[in-house]
Amino acid sequence: MDVAKMESMKQAFQTEANAYKQLQADVAKNHTARQQFIQQQQENDMVLKELEMLEEDANVYKLIGPALVKQDPVEAKSNVSKRLEFIRGELGRLDSQLKNYEEKQQKKGQQLAKMQTDIQALTQSAASAVAQA
């Protein structure tokens, strides 16, 4: 009976450990995406500052494929502002997602620690039962 219970607990522990590893991978993926958005935000902030320094009659060009296409400065500022708004929204979404992942990871870690303690206690009781026999 104890052997079957121990195997069952070990299998459950392995399943939970795999889920914990998946959470770690999700956190790492989130960090990577977040870093990319932060870099894009910094680049777009610089572009917006440059556009704000331009005079009203300045020429602004946008690279579309291999060609530079003339663009209205007001439209360019608007596009960059909208892009920044989108990036900030994505960063907010990623932050809340990261918080959720970290909370799940902490709970899963506590659950794994308890399961490991239970397995060790069962192993020790089984070993002492064998020694007494």
From TrEMBL:
Alphabetized InterPro entries for the sequence: PFD_beta-like (IPR002777), Prefoldin (IPR009053)
Pfam families to which the protein is assigned, alphabetical: Prefoldin_2
Residues forming coiled coils: 6-57, 84-118
UniProt xrefs under SUPFAM superfamilies: Prefoldin
GO BP term, example: response to cold
Lineage: superkingdom: Eukaryota
GO cellular component, one term: prefoldin complex
Keyword annotations of the record: Chaperone, Coiled coil
Record GO terms (molecular function): protein-folding chaperone binding; unfolded protein binding
Family: Belongs to the prefoldin subunit beta family.
Protein name (Swiss-Prot/TrEMBL): Prefoldin subunit 6
Lineage, uppermost ranks: Eukaryota, Viridiplantae, Chlorophyta, core chlorophytes, Trebouxiophyceae
